[in-house]
Here is the input.
Amino acid sequence: MKIADIQTYHLNMPIDEFAFSQKWVRARTALIIKVVTDDGTVGWGEAFCHDAGRAIEAIISQTFRPHLIGRNPLEINVLWDHLYNWTKDYGQKGIVISALSAVDIALWDILGKVSDLPIVTLLGGQFYDRIQGYATGLYMRDAADDRQNLADEARSYIEEGFKHLKMKVGYGLAKDISIVTAVREAVGDDIHLMIDANHAYDATTAIRLGKKLSHLNIDWFEEPVSPEDIEGYAEVRQAIDIPVAGGEAEFTRFGFRQLLTQRAVDIVQPDICAAGGLTEGRRIADMARTWHTRCIPHVWGTAIGRAASLHFIASLPPTPPALFPQKALLELDLTPHPLRDEVVLNPPEVVNGWVTVPQAPGLGVEVNESFLEANSRSNIHHHNP
Ligand code: CA
Here is the structure.
């Protein structure tokens, strides 16, 4: 079996704008990869692309493609290692690794289809049949009353069945305290609430915020400081009693090594579509468990990336093990995303906030190719000569 062709699809659609601590979001994008073998098997993957979809396409077509065409797609680890080492001098972090993640996920999809098994089985089996989702939303909008607006949105998630919500902070201490208090009051004490500053603060400010919110029973404080500031993370973690989470802007086991060895976080959050795919995600999760640290992946893509994350999360044992352990969680981005479910014909269904792990071979999603063809802005489609 050989890789015969690789295609990419870059999608970009405008949305009603919303903001987090760093910027306004006015479009949703996706970078989808299709790997085709000489016997016609097709594997799909996704890269976390922000607004760099074209650049990731170029990495795949210019840099990776010559190393993949003609190779055995089942040698996933061999190909991962080759592509990583080939680009090491300029690609250890960022979009090169995101591109590698997309390739890796597509190869796992092929392995699953060839084996007639879901990826979660190939990862060693599933600890959960279904995963509890946590609602990621509660961004800033152009609203007259932010407190009221966020409280209403939070209550809507509770009505959908969610027990875990994550909201954005990072707008300044006074504003953060005001909106987190409003959301906590709106949802009551029994709902799990997490906060995410998207690295808007230095360690001193993050510590002040963590202390001022400690009475609101926050499950974790995500990206309190800049991803480069590992010492700052460790300072925040030492100083506050809210668990600290981070890692969505970190890449490969080499990046996560610092977070773990310096005991900088309570929870690592690798993104399977960015940090190195399922292959590297597994290494990161194994390393996290070696440091007795929870791994709750960041998830922000379409249904393709969500499916890959589902298989991955279901394969992770509870950390630490216990009769009543802390259960796995799946991040469910509930912000506007006109591409999320449209790219597949059978998106993983959310029922009362829970998502069942797909059991069809590979990722278990059926990609809507005509939607991709109709909406792709790609100009880099390669076909067999
Ligand atoms: Ca985040």
Q: What stands out?
A: The longest helix spans residues 95-115.
